[in-house]
Amino acid sequence: MKFVKHAAVLVAASALVLTAGISAASANTEASTGSETGATEATTSAPAANIWIDGFKIAPSAENFTMSFSYTQALWGADSALKLGIYTADAPLDVTTWEAQGAGAAAAFPDAEQAMADLTQEVQGQGVVFRKSVEKTISFKPSGAYSVMLFDVNKDGARFLAGAKVDVTLATPAVPTFDAKTSTLTVPDSNEFTYQDATGKTWAPGPYLLVAPVKLTAVPNPGFAAAPEASTEWPEFAPEVKPAPEPKPEKEPGTDKDKTPGTDKDKNPSDETQTTGGGTPPVSGPNENQLSPALEGKVGAQPTAAAGAQVKIFVGTQFAGKEVDVYVFSEPTYLGRHLVDPDGNVTVMLPAGLTGSHRLAVYNGGELIGWNRIIIGESTDGSTGTGFVAGTVTTSQLATTGSDSTGTLALLAAGSVVLGAAGLVARRRARRSVA
Question: Which of 114, 263, 270, 381, by CA, is between 20 and 30 Å from 192?
Answer without folding.
Answer: 114
